[in-house]
Amino acid sequence: MTASPETPPPGRAASMPIPAVVAERGPITHALFRVARLNRLHARQLLRRVGLHPAQELVMLQLWDLGPQRQTDLVALLGSDTATMTRTIQRLETAGFIRRRRSEHDKRVHIIEPTAASQALRAQVEEVWSDLEAAVTRNLDESQQAQLLKLLEQAEADLIPVTASAEPDGIAQL
Q1: Is residue 43 part of a domain?
Q2: Is 77 helix (H, G, I), strand (E, B) or coil?
Q3: Is residue 71 included in any domain, yes or no?
Q4: How far apart are CA 139 and CA 98, in angstroms?
Q5: What string of DSSP letters covers 90-152?
Q6: In angstroms, what CA-CA distances link 109 with 30, 66, 73, 75, 105?
Q7: In the prediction, which pLDDT does 163 show?
Q8: Is the pLDDT score of 11 beyond 70?
Q9: Exposed (0-12), middle (13-18) or buried (19+): which is 171, by Cβ within 10 Å?
């Protein structure tokens, strides 16, 4: 069954048609999906300008905030998996933004640290996050922003136990 185009209510852009079953059984989930998709597309556009792909900036932000980290700790911090993190680390290393070294205490462990070259990138990445936030909240007052954040945090808390049991390693993928 194909969805028929619908006229969006005032204030809502028609980003994609809503299938009938979704409109009836999952309008909030579909709205979250649409917003997340559009936010990721916008993030991709902004990050491309600074030479990064989505999620690479999250690795860099963690390293800038916390300092050098074990690769396994980055996996846990970002809710990633080992294979995805390995590819991300390789790409960031090739770009010159991080350095990977063996731990002095355990040669099986890789320590990931930001390079001096990445420090110039930091202000640009912070600006990208400010631009993303502004795009999402530009028509919301402070009270609405606080309410939206609280509702999203509650939705996240509600999803954590459900998704943890669905992933083989117990970590929900970003």
Answers
A1: yes
A2: helix
A3: yes
A4: 37
A5: HHHHHTTSEEEEE-SS-TTPEEEEE-HHHHHHHHHHHHHHHHHHHHHHTT--HHHHHHHHHHH
A6: 41, 18, 11, 13, 8
A7: 84
A8: no
A9: middle
pTM over 0.70: yes
**Contact by Cβ (8 Å): 174, 62:** no
Residues whose CB falls within 8 Å of the CB of residue 115, separated by 6 or more in sequence, listed in order: 96, 97, 98, 99
Residue 16 counted as domain residue: no
Residues 174 and 78: beta-carbon distance below 8 Å = yes
Distance CA 67, CA 73 (A): 12
Find the domain containing 53 and state its range.
Answer: 27-135+159-164
In a domain, 153, yes or no: no
- Select the more confidently predicted residue: 103 or 5: 103
Whichever domain contains 97, its CATH number is 1.10.10.10
Number of H helices, E strands in the chain: 7, 3
Domain total for the chain? 1
The single-letter code of the amino acid at 40 is R
- Which two tokens mark 55? 């999620």
Residue 33's Cα: distance from chain center in Å? 13
- Residues 31-66: tens digit of each pLDDT: 999 999 999 999 999 999 999 999 999 999 999 999
